[in-house]
Amino acid sequence: MSLPTPLQAFSSVPRNWGPDDKDVPAQGEPMTGAQALIRSLEDLGVTQVFGVPGGAILPTYDAIDEQVRFNFTLTRHEQAAGHAAEGYAVSTGKVGVCLVTSGPGATNMVTPIADAMMDSVPLVVVTGQVGVDSIGTDAFQEADIVGITYPVAKHSYLLTKAQDIPRVMTEAYHIARSGRPGPVVVDLSKTAQNGKMLYSWPQEMILPGYNPVTRAHGHVLDDAARLLVQSHRPVLYVGGGAVRSDARRQIQELVRATGAPMVTTLPARGIVPDSDPAVLGMPGMHGTVAANGAIQHSDLLVAVGTRFDDRVTGSLEDFAPVARVIHIDIDPAEIGKNRQADVPIVGDVGQVLDDLIPALKAAQRTWGKPDLKPWWRLIDGWRHDYPTTFEPSPDGTLAPQWVVQTLSNKADPNTIWVSGVGQHQMWASQFIDFERTRSWVSSCGLGTMGYGLPAAIGTAIGTREQEDPRPVWLVDGDGSFQMTSEELATAQQAGLPIRIAILNNSVYGMVRQWQTLFYGSHYSQTDLEDGGDKPTDGNGIPDFVKLAEAYGCLGLRAFTQEQALEAIDKANAVTDRPVLIDFRVWKDAMVWPMVPAGASNDTIIYKPGVQPLAGIRPEQEQPEPHQQTGADRAAMANDAAGRMNK
User: Fold this and answer.
1) What residues contact residue 189 under an 8 Å CB cut-off, 6+ apart?
2) What is the DSSP letter of 98?
3) Which residue of the set 94, 154, 161, 190 is catalytic?
4) pLDDT in tens, 615-633
5) Which residue, of 22, 164, 199, 365, has the fewest CB within 10 Å?
6) What's the rounded mean pLDDT across residues 625-643?
7) Omega before 497 cis (within 30°)?
8) Where are the alpha helices (DSSP H) in 190-263?
9) Does residue 376 contact residue 368 with C-beta atoms inside 8 Å?
10) Beta sheet of 324-329, edge-to-edge order
11) How far is CA 592 from CA 172, 285, 610, in A?
12) Longest dimension (CA), the chain
């Protein structure tokens, strides 16, 4: 066997079994390594696997027969298999499992692995690998996937022995879903697949040093409770970690116990119903004025399962400038990474809050509750004066915000919403009413275009496993959708009634918005020419209706509000196949509010010419003449937006 690379060695290459090794099992059911992999998935309780076959993984696919106890979904691309597994995992809370081949099959999985790592999504990705004797020889379709994915995976294995397969799969599944969830790569050599072994279950894990902290230690709970009863301008800043922890109940209890306003990051939408008056919406670059204003003026920020992402904080040094911080996260690496915490609490969000809330109530009995009425008057003023709204399209085309709002109003309240990445993603987060947790599936940290359709497939398969399946709507852009549109075949063959709303503005919308605001309206390579501005401009390239029909799906198109309403009603009534609606929307529509990248959230632009939080903070030191600061970009954006508005 070729010696492993340092990265592979660090990533738990199994040791060689010697003839005198006492750990070799004395009994068990004889089978091949490939059969052991399938049996391990079944014994782990896996009910769904996504993937694409290939040469190096063929022994394992050969072990999949009609008796297998999980459902297998064949996608048309390995990246789609990864995103489908993500959608399945996010919407169900289970571990997503993928099975792909070596070389290009494995490298096509790099994007979903990185995406899952950023969004803390539990995945087990099994990749085929060439035989042991060929590793390191540049054999056909060989790639060091362990080395390639090492920076973007939670953990990795290179399996060379059949006997290790049940133990490693047990460990991989446990690592993926415990602690901070994430993707685990199991690179399975053809030698291990074809090798003979003795199968037994359950398996004992060998994970020295891996003991995620789940409960808070020491006096931090009392410290946090003391800060909460002393705060007169608190804000609960809740992130995706609360969703991964299934902490909806605890978050709602914390809201009631504190009486504080709450903001939710993009992946946490719906953790508390939007109808709850405590919910201010999303903070950050495209967040609400009330959410950003509350954070900027807060004296205490309770960060729960969130990582102070740059899209939320803007200029980090200007973010919540006078607030103390309580930071609760299961990943100790996130505590203090971007913002120093006054009270750092490492632990599972749900368990920490179960312990914190009684401590808070005890502190309130001792010191009383602070008067938050003046704080709420300020926040309610922002909410009243700067609601989430939009202007009609000046050219008579559909306003994309109206389309999303109408979709939400007409949808089943139990709908799970999935999005691609771009302007449509932000409009979906702004104009859809989220009333249930795990009702929102989107690529948040990595921002992967093409995520939407395969993630919707995984979501629809996940909800189909439930006693009461939930409808699935995908809100996508024409640019994002075309990156994985081949997966319409997967959705159709699986009989998934996914409803797809394409906000077709014929451009890469978010890139065009930045080109308008920051690059002098130089629209370099963002015109897709796939729809046109008017009905007389033709059906575009591609014709999305014909594309849908080519895959056996129902295709509809809407240019007017009347056509849109009719198409939405028709789509909601279809239950036996996917439905795609091509909504022709204004190509120059922009996402407002907006905080320019790197600027303080105080510079938020509600709409062209309106900056409700500007001028409140003390003046900062003037930059050097050659530097462009966040404030400069905010001024540029406001000026450019004003010109567009005229």
Assistant:
1) 129, 130, 131, 132, 135, 158, 159, 160
2) E
3) 190
4) 765 333 333 333 445 665 5
5) 22
6) 57
7) no
8) 190-194, 220-230, 240-244, 248-258
9) no
10) 262-264, 234-238, 300-304, 324-329, 343-346
11) 42, 9, 11
12) 82
| Of 50, 78, 282, 483, catalytic | 78
The length of the chain is: 646
646 pLDDT above the threshold of 60: no
* Residue 513 annotated to the active site: no
Is residue 213 within 8 Å of 352, Cβ to Cβ? no
The reply to whether 140 belongs to the active site is yes
Q: Please write the tens of the pLDDT for every residue from 584-621.
A: 999 999 999 999 999 999 999 999 999 999 876 533 33
CA distance 127 to 564: 43
Whether 636 is catalytic is no
Q: Which pLDDT score is estimated for 530?
A: 80
Contacts of 109 by beta carbon, 8 Å cutoff, 6+ apart: 78, 79, 81, 82, 98, 100, 125, 127, 145, 149
209: exposed, middle or buried (C-beta count within 10 Å: 0-12, 13-18, 19+)? Answer: exposed
Q: Which two tokens stand for residue 427?
A: 């409009």
Give the global pTM. Answer: 0.92
- pLDDT at res. 531: 73
CB 164 within 8 A of CB 134: no
Could you confirm whether 171 is annotated as catalytic?
no
Which phi and psi angles does 235 have, rounded to 5°?
A: -140, 130
Reported confidence tier of residue 396, pLDDT bands at 50, 70, 90? confident
Rounded-to-integer distance, Cα 190 and Cα 61, Å: 12
Distance, in Å, from the CA atom of 562 to the CA atom of 558, rounded to the nearest integer, reads 8
Q: Is 190 a catalytic residue?
A: yes
Instruction: Please count the other Cβ atoms lying within 10 Å of the Cβ belonging to residue 162.
Output: 26
User: Looking at residue 266, what is its pLDDT?
Assistant: 97
In the set 118, 169, 197, 510, the catalytic residue is: 510
At residue 12 the predicted structure's pLDDT band, cuts being 50, 70 and 90, is very low
